Amino acid sequence: MLLGEIKHSITKLKGIGPHTAGQLATLDIMSVADLLLHVPRDYEDRSRIVPLKEGYQDATVNTLVEVVAHDFFGPEHKKTLKVYVKDETATGVLVCFNRNFLQHVLKVGHQFYLYGQFSYRYGDLQSSSFEAEPYPSEHTKFGSILPVYPLSGKLNQSVLRKAVQDALTTYGKYIDNELPESLRSHYRYLEKRRALAQLHFPDSHDSAAQARQSLAYEELLYFQLVVARHSLARKDSRRSPKILPEKLQRSCLKNLPFSLTTDQRSVLTEIKQDLDSAHPMGRLLQGDVGSGKTLVAFLAALPVIEAGYQAAFLAPTELLARQHAERAAELLEPLGVRVAFLSGNVDKNARRPLLDALRTGEVDLLIGTHALFTREVVFQSLRLVIIDEQHKFGVEQRSQLMEKGHAPDLLLMTATPIPRTLTLTFFGDLDVSSIRTMPPGRKEIVTHLARQSNADKVYNAVRHELERGHQAYFVYPLIRGTEKSSLKAAEGAAEQLSSTIFPNYKVALIHSKIREEEKLERMHAFSEGTIDILVSTSVVEVGVDIKNATCMVIEHAERFGLAGLHQLRGRVGRSTLQSYAFLVYSEELTEEGKQRLLVMKESSDGFFIAEEDLKIRGPGEVTGTRQSGFMRLKFADLSGDLTLLDKARKDAFRIIKADPGLLQPDHQQLRRTLECCPPFPEDTLTGG
Prior knowledge:
By secondary structure, this protein is α/β, with parallel strands linked by helices. The chain has 23 helices and 20 strands.
């Protein structure tokens, strides 16, 4: 039986009633398989004796003690029990807050296994957080390494440990291996059932590490098999190679008032080679904020359009899509390129003729939002799909657009550089291009960190820039405040900035709840310079390009992720003007929030920031997959398993190439086929 096939409800386990099942459901644990896949976040080592005398250094004590006396302290109506214990090295005190019943359990003269956090207080070695069990005991935790699980609600470690132990005892022996035997034996990985047992209740720390690596490799291998199938399926899709014309592209380049950077030229060459090849392109273009990715995308589309095909350009918001459409019209229409814009807000009277023109091939480049997915959008000859801010779209949405053409070329773009481990894992079926150099003349944005108590200094700095004729953004985490929250909000801040702080300047507000037409009007006014200060939520995170804006003030900056902070900071510094970012943080700053702000202060390199973001938050949060449910890794740690990932990737591609029949999409069939595969010769495997 495969682990994923154990669909039995956790209520089948001893001691798991409806209430506990409800608590477990908050951890997404509904079945026995879910429970066995709930990976410990740490371990308590009760296998090594740590005597009482080491508790003076705030250590965790793990020893055999004898109870020598009882005492009470505190007022008469609310006395608290103190239990004096000793081992061969020292004497300690157990402070039993709200647990006076322990005087009948921890009896004087009896021995107990003791595990607890000790510190030196009030002249005694004390612990108020401890566990004790009688000595001798048939089912002791003493001498073991115990799992420490992520918890929620009123769940405790004892409930989870007992449930997992019961699941392993009842179902563990039926769990089959999923790795091909040739791979498992080659790498000396544990059998699946033993790996799970050692992961949860290891014999040693080495056993736990070996179990995790065995399970992590299997997890990464199966994901990389999917990646390899996608990659090889694309390469298996053939078309007649054709050198696409470049006359329009050369004309566009000639009309530009500047030269492309070295990276932009290099990426254009890579894309052109893909477009001319016998296989559809699959390429991820990553580049820092303001590096010129959109221009590269427009230039890449010109050979396709000149050859008589169509291109689609998808953006996540109407604000960004309209900006792209306006720029494309300015840049491409003088060359004879027919550009059209489509969103859900295009009215029916304009929509119908636009769709008719698209279907008959009278539109060369369609730029829009999610409206491009709808059935009514039909292309005559879609050859190139460009998706901006690709992480805002799901795999299924991307597929819906791709299906509107015949194996079209795909160009994904992101202004949030992706660490190498995540690139290999999530986009391993794509070729990757990077733009690291910025357009000449751009100055590095000066970043300041400021406490809220020093906000006046920030306002003065912004006022200085406004007096010079420049503009500013103020960004807030909320649209409007609540009684329960002390966070500043955009609506209230806009009123305060306009009436009190900057009364001589024009202030406008935009956020997601404002009508699209009104939002666009205010953005246009800001772009034209008739608005001095734009107050917003993170709706301005992507795509907004105002060259005269030189100040970005982010209030409660600790509430934003690193990627969001970097994107917001990138809204300024879009010209040769010196620009500034002010990250204003509250007094209640968490350690993680402090780490993020220091990274932003230290660097403006999006590639470095992406790597730091991965270290701080982990892969699920960085990519948004923790919420979406896509590729939720249980065992692998992408911030530390690059070597394992590389090994799994190489093996997956070699397996798929050895048996092209594995290109079919059915996961279960893939597993069965792998089981039937003859052992691979040693030279087809990566090194152990």
